[in-house]
Amino acid sequence: MLTGLLGAFAAAVLYGAATVLQAAGVRRLRAVPAGAPLAARLWGGRLYAVGLGLDAAGFLASIAALRTLPLFVVQSAIASSVAVTAVLAVVFLGARLERREVVALVVVGLGLLALALSATPERAVRLGPGAQWLLLAGVVPVAAVALAGVVRRGPGSAAWLAVASGLGFSGVGVASRVLVVPDPWVGLLLSPTAWAIVGYAAVALVCYGLALDRGSVTTTAAVTFAVETVVPSAIGLLLLHDRVRAGYPVVAAVGFVATLGGCIALARRAEPPPEPDD
Length: 278
Description:
By secondary structure, the protein is mostly helical. The protein is about 75% helix and about 0% strand.
């Protein structure tokens, strides 16, 4: 179980650090003069590239955690990456936290501790071929929600897109939890579950970007955090035999609510402020 917990918390740290690096990288890239050589532009965006690398590493760490830990623990830990972003933004980008955000950070930390104490190692159930194809087919209704957000106009558009993003990330979590890695790995090319991860991830990333473009960071992040944490956690507990350690259901519930609530309170930190000008 320790390996799974380390993977979950490593994913949170990697995702949080990636957000800060990408924010700093975008700022530096914008400072590159127009018409500068390609090498100069690539060098200016190097931090953004490193951030993408950390995102990839965080994704792999989350998959490793999902091999042995229930979804409600791992998804909560991933959502807490916003707390990591908040702290690193203070250290490296000169951001300032309000008092309520400091309280939220403490609440997130205590919530994660409670979830860690209530977790029990458990392998996910194996899905039959039919269930795997059904999981892949689930990309279609999620894409339909995304399409509804794209064609809508006005304030509701961003909310629809954020919900679609949260559902996409939920699908990634569920599919990663039940993924069976064949030997040799090339067999993943024929796995409906592996393709489900790709499909859900594509919808989630595109919708999150569109939602940020059309709405506020705070609302988009809060809705996405809520959906991507609550939905897969419920699926894990109801359908995938995820369990809470005996005698710890109340601790798990309190930890889950505290972590999610703290993350929502920190939602605006999902997009940290740019570095102050020198």
